[in-house]
């Protein structure tokens, strides 16, 4: 079976965005952006929901129209993408995109069995469903050094099951952005307690 990576960027308090703040909270630096371009070039199949699809397709289309498409956006446009939605019309407008209107968990399970390497992009509820189903092999979080308690949007971990995380790597970009990568295990009690099984 292949690997599924859930990939988030968050504020320290677990928000995916903040009202009135730019993308990456305005704190992306050259080291982080260079890594992002390299990381997005790996051609994993990118999984997303309809909201993330609309947002990212808009970014890519706007950048391409202005002739300023950044390397990361160009790589994302070229990457194979699967969008889970019952509201989007088929065929999708964005190149290399397949629309799936059926159960995401069943589709991802079948893709893993077929040997497809996957990663998510945003899509909090999709990631939550895949994690609860035990399909996530790695959980990576880029933590940006801000707390957005007053303006934060898109709380990432609300509604998640309890999860034990085994740290497998960490890195700091531009002296301020911390990237943490874990192997997740859904648990029924505190880590270290005997799990039913």
UniProtKB/TrEMBL annotation:
<dbReference type="InterPro" id="IPR002734">
    <property type="entry name" value="RibDG_C"/>
</dbReference>
<dbReference type="InterPro" id="IPR050765">
    <property type="entry name" value="Riboflavin_Biosynth_HTPR"/>
</dbReference>
<dbReference type="InterPro" id="IPR024072">
    <property type="entry name" value="DHFR-like_dom_sf"/>
</dbReference>
<dbReference type="GO" id="GO:0008703">
    <property type="term" value="F:5-amino-6-(5-phosphoribosylamino)uracil reductase activity"/>
</dbReference>
<dbReference type="Pfam" id="PF01872">
    <property type="entry name" value="RibD_C"/>
</dbReference>
<dbReference type="GO" id="GO:0009231">
    <property type="term" value="P:riboflavin biosynthetic process"/>
</dbReference>
<feature type="domain" description="Bacterial bifunctional deaminase-reductase C-terminal">
    <location>
        <begin position="5"/>
        <end position="178"/>
    </location>
</feature>
<protein>
    <submittedName>
        <fullName>Bifunctional deaminase-reductase domain protein</fullName>
    </submittedName>
</protein>
